[in-house]
């Protein structure tokens, strides 16, 4: 990173409060709407590859991925605080994952296709929910 006030760090338990505050603030209440979901998401974070973006000592974004044993890295969550959007921070987080897994295909599971289309990512399939 070239900016002194910007850092990408591996997610740690010390980031938990700030991360869940960001999730709640940005309306991602599906992960923190009740104690059971909150607990399950904390467990998922512990089993995932996750990075947080820190600017001026504030957590302003994060990415959560899973490595499928070299068959691909799947990005489950990418979120940047609304007041920091438009500065390339989401792309920085994705670049961090790509740098960590340079020989592995990276796939994004998206609910916001327009964002990834804007980044000129190639659509590689669809996701279907089993009810």
Automatic annotation (TrEMBL):
InterPro entries in the record: Acyl_CoA_acyltransferase, GNAT_dom
A matching Pfam family: Acetyltransf_1
PROSITE patterns referenced in this protein's UniProt entry, alphabetically: GNAT
Chain ranges of the N-acetyltransferase domain: 6-131
CDD domains: NAT_SF (cd04301)
Protein's recorded name: N-acetyltransferase domain-containing protein
